[in-house]
Design brief:
The protein is mainly α. The protein has helices spanning 2-21, 32-51, 55-75, 83-112. It has one domain (2-112). 80% of the residues lie in helices and 0% in strands.
């Protein structure tokens, strides 16, 4: 199972980087800030589960990726770097890790009572 999660993680990371650096811009019916939130919500959980990192490790890996993407977009003529994107990423990261923590804690609590 862990090997499958690692494969999913690397495919997901490749998709994030491809869409973050590609020159074409797709129109979506929702705000791109919501997409940033969801993108990093999933990423933070994937890195935590696939590589069994600590919460702080998952947080910093996710923040590093977010900062890296925004820094590269700053230098691309067809993309723009925005603080609002980073804020949405940060909110997604913290929400994802918090939800992971709550679900894991609830699961452990329910299984310990059996």
């Amino acid at each position: 199972m862990n090997k499958i999660l690692k494969i999913i993680f690397w495919i997901y990371l490749a998709a994030i980087l491809f869409f973050s650096f590609s020159p074409f811009v797709t129109q979506t019916p929702v705000s791109d800030k919501i997409l940033h939130f969801i993108e990093f919500f999933i990423f933070s959980i994937l890195v935590k589960e696939a590589y069994r990192t600590s919460y702080w490790g998952s947080f910093f890996y996710s923040v590093f990726l977010s900062v890296f993407i925004e820094a590269v977009q700053y230098f691309l003529p067809y993309r723009t770097a925005e603080y609002a994107d980073f804020s949405a990423d940060l909110l997604g990261i913290t929400s994802g890790l918090f939800m992971y923590f709550v679900i894991k804690l609830t699961y452990l609590e329910l299984t310990s009572k059996e």
